[in-house]
Amino acid sequence: MEFFWAFIVGGLICVIGQIMFDVFKLTPGHTLSILVASGSVLSGFGLYDKLVDFAGAGASVPITSFGNQLVNGAMEAADKHGIIGVITGMFQVTSSGISAAIIFGMIGAIFFKPKG
Predict the structure, then answer these.
(1) Which residues form the signal peptide (predicted)?
(2) How many structural domains is the chain composed of?
(3) Which site among 21, 82, 94, 96 is 20 to 30 Å from 105 CA-CA?
């Protein structure tokens, strides 16, 4: 059942994103921002962690989990370091993923030529 619920929840998040593209004609940047912000809001209310417990990778893989990680990192660091921890905590939690994206993007740009 874990795989089933992961598929359903992850699929629903993707369907919501696709509806934003097709029906509301939002740009990819707007859609991305809305999904990250919605993950942040759900995390702020303590609901996103419950969704991850229920759906596993179905909730932890989509872009909404990035907002969840930002809020969790900020709240954890705020407990340790106060108001400065809010900002530094977000960077500590997400730095490895962002660094990996930049490094692999650079490697891809070096080895592959774009069509055009």
Answers:
(1) none
(2) 1
(3) 21
